[in-house]
Design brief:
This protein is an alpha/beta fold. The chain contains six helices and nine strands, in the order ααββαβαβαββαβββ. A seven-stranded mixed sheet has the order 5-4-3-6-7-8-9. The chain binds S-adenosyl-L-homocysteine.
Length: about 210
């Protein structure tokens, strides 16, 4: 086996051993090459189960966390999904394999531009990326079946909760930005919102407003 093939095998093994069991999620993560989303110095570590630095002082999430969040979101092929925090674009690319359409927003224009270039290169045509402040959601495309926030919020943002369909699911890390956060699954029901705490995670903060870059 080549070194590359072996690294990819280990990548999938790490996902399973950390609790990513959903067959469709594993298939999506086998198909989307994380190596395409990690540039420069860290490219050779793309298949390790580690978060890695990307441009603009942000990070690409740890693959097992991407897997667990995607699994918790229970996406199906009819779903319209909103992601807040495009970052490298990796999470959106994984979602694109499971959903009908993915909208992904980031406050850094540079990250959106670079992620879109990778989506184009990989032929992922069901992703719409936009430079925008995700704390306001995306009212013109709402409501969404699923919403994934990949930056830590102090509370699930109100405008985003409002953009969730009845029966819809949101997954969001909640807590103080520089501490360990709780990954929360929010389900919109007839009577309000149900909250389940899934596990501890550590994400960069959700910051209001656009960045200069
Ligand atoms: N999902 C990404 C990792 C996200 S890192 C991946 O797969 O690589 C968190 C991202 O959230 C950062 O890129 C940061 O710029 C973005 N972010 C933080 N606050 C935001 C906001 N208010 N609106 C949109 N994006 C935001």
């Amino acid at each position: 086996m080549t070194q590359d093939a072996e690294a990819k095998m280990q990548f999938l093994f790490a996902l399973r051993s950390k609790g990513v069991m959903d067959k469709r999620v594993l298939e999506a993560m086998e198909k989307i090459d994380r190596g395409a989303f990690v540039k420069g110095l860290f490219a050779e570590r793309a298949y390790e189960d580690m978060p890695l630095p990307i441009a603009c002082g942000q990070t690409i999430s740890q693959p097992s966390v991407v897997g667990l969040m995607t699994q918790a979101l229970q996406v199906d092929a009819r779903h319209k999904v909103l992601e807040i925090g495009t970052g490298s674009g990796y999470q959106a690319a994984v979602l694109s394999q499971l959903a009908r359409r993915v909208y992904t927003l980031d406050r850094h224009r540079r990250l959106v531009k670079e992620a879109q270039a990778v989506f184009d290169e990989l032929g992922l045509t069901n992703i719409t990326s936009m430079a925008a402040d995700g704390t306001r959601g995306l009212p013109e495309q709402a409501p969404f079946d699923r919403i994934l926030i990949t930056a830590a919020a102090e509370d699930p943002p109100g405008p985003l909760l409002e953009e969730l369909k009845l029966g819809g699911i949101m997954v969001v890390p909640v807590g103080q930005s520089d501490a360990v956060q709780a990954l929360i699954k929010v389900t919109r029901t007839e009577t309000g919102f149900e909250y389940d705490e899934l596990r501890q995670v550590r994400f960069v903060p959700l910051v209001e407003g656009m960045s200069a870059d």
